[in-house]
Amino acid sequence: MGQSAGNGPRNEMLQLAAGVADLAAGRFRDAVRRLPGLGEIREELRVRGELALKRTAPVPEAHTEVLSRRVVRRASGE
User: Fold this and answer.
1) Measured between alpha carbons, how far is 14 from 68 in angstroms, rounded to an integer?
2) Residue 16 half-sphere exposure, CB side, CA atoms within 13 Å?
3) What share of the chain is helix, strand, coil (3-state, %, to 5)?
4) pTM of the prediction?
5) Can you list the positions of beta strands (E) in the chain?
6) Predicted pLDDT of residue 71
7) C or N terminus of the chain, fewer CB within 10 Å?
8) Each residue of 44-75: pLDDT tens digit?
9) How far apart are CA 51 and CA 57, in angstroms?
10) Alpha carbon of 63 to those of 56, 59, 60, 66, 77: distances in Å?
């Protein structure tokens, strides 16, 4: 299970984090069911994870920006 082509350090970090999260998730679910108050912690961790993934994910170019560039190219005769 080596590093596949196109799988840079950014993807590797994401995969490692997901592996650790998956490993801990089973144990964490059991703890949330048994102990009061961990539901809030779970939600906080979920939100933090979502924000972390958004921070590292590639941002697609805005649709209107793509359209405006096409209009400019056509107007300039390209």
Assistant:
1) 34
2) 8
3) 75, 0, 25
4) 0.35
5) none
6) 93
7) N
8) 788 888 888 888 777 777 888 888 999 999 99
9) 10
10) 20, 12, 9, 5, 22
What's the confidence (pLDDT) of residue 55?
A: 80
Q: Would you state the structure tokens that stand for residue 22, as one six-digit string? A: 């998956």
DSSP state of 57: S
Q: Return phi, psi of residue 28, to 5°.
A: -65, -40
Residue tagged 């048994």 (tokens): 34
Residue 17, classified by CB atoms within 10 Å of its CB into exposed (0-12), middle (13-18) or buried (19+), is middle
CA distance 21 to 42: 12
Give the whole-angstrom CA distance, residue 67 versus residue 8.
30
CB 38 within 8 A of CB 31: yes
Kindly state the tokens that stand for 1.
């299970």
Please report which helix (H) or strand (E) contains residue 49, including its range: helix 38-56
